[in-house]
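Hi F.,

I've been meaning to write this up properly since the lab meeting, where we talked about keeping a consistent format for the predictions we share between groups. The idea is simple: the sequence comes first, exactly as it goes in, then the C-alpha cells exactly as they come out, then a line or two of notes. No screenshots and no reformatting. I'm using this chain as the first example so we have something concrete to point to.
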Amino acid sequence: MSVGVDIGGTKVAAGVVDEAGRVLERSQVPTPSHDPKAVEDAIVDAVERLRERHRVEAVGIGAAGWVDNTQSVVRFSPHLAWRDEPLRAALAQRINLPTIVDNDANAAAWAEYRFGAGAGSSVMVCLTLGTGIGGGLVINGELFRGTYGMAGEWGHMTKVPGGHWCECGNRGCWEQYASGNALVREARALLASDGPGADTLRTSLGVVPEAVSGPHVTAAAMAGDPVAVALLADVGTWLGLGIADVVAGLDPEVVVIGGGVSAAGELLVGPAREAFQATLSGRGFRAYARLELARFRNDAGLVGAADLARRALQEPPNSARSGFWPRRKRRSKRAERRGGELRARRRELSA
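Output, unedited:
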C-alpha cells in the first residue's frame, strides 16, 4: 500500500491506496495556503496518522503548482505560497519513506488512466476543475510532463486578452472563466447587483454573499434553482470553448473532467459538450473526443499520487534526472541460494 496526498488551494486530502486504486482510509484538513511550513506540517501529520494503522511502502504528493522534472521542487504555485520550494527533500527528512512529488493534475490524470474514465485510451486529457484548472496528459500509457515538468497548464492559456487578473500574473486565463473561482465570483457579483434572479438565488444559497462557495452554487443548481443552473451553464460553456482549443492541438481520444466542480455532472458537462462541438476546428469532418466525468472525482489526485509512488518503487526510470531514488540492486543467484540455505538452517535449529 502507499499513501497519496492531494494538496489543493483549499484542502489537503490524504489516503491509503491499494494496488487496485481503492482508497482504504482517508483524511482531509483545510490548506494553510500562506505558510509553506504549515502545509508541510499538515502533510506530515496526515501521513503519520495513516501509517499508524496501515503498512505503507511509499508516499506520493500531488501539489497544486509547477513541479520540476526531478519530481521534487515546486517552482511556483498560483494558489499557494510555494516559490522554488524543495518539497520532496523537506518531506523525506520527516516522513522517512520513499517520496515523490508531482503536479496534482498529473496525479489525477494518472488515476483516471490507470483505473478510471480514461482506462485503455491512447491519448487522454484530464482537466481538474477546482480553485483553478489543472491539466494532465497521458500518451500511450506514459504521463507526459514536458521538458521541464510543467506541461498541461492549459488553465493559464489566455482566453480573454485584458480579462480578469489571474494568480499566475497574467490576465484573461481560461481558469478565470471555467473554474470554481469563476463560479463563485459570478454568483457573488450577481447577488451584489440585486439584478434579476438575485433574490431567488440568495434564498437558494442560504448564506451571505461573502460565504458563497462553489459547492453552494452547485447544490442550488442541482436543487433546481434556475439562476444557479444558468451560472453553471456559463462556466460549462467557457469550459467547452477551452476544450476545443486543447483538442485541436492534441487530438485526444477522451477528455476526462474531474475536480470539485465536476460534481455538477451534466449541468456542467452538457453545456461544455455543446460549446466544444460547436467550436472545434474541422467540425463535421473529424471525430469528436469523448467528454467523460472522472470516476474518482475529488479522490483522483491522491489515488494517482499513491500509484505513481508505488510505480516508482517497482519501475524506477532510467534517467538520472528523473529524481527517483536509486534502483535497487538485484541480488545475485549465489546470494539468493545462500540466503535460502541460511533460512533452512534456522528452521532446523528452531525445530
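Notes:
The chain is about 40% helix and 20% strand.
The first strand starts at residue 2 and ends at 7.

If this format works for you, I'll send the rest the same way.

G.
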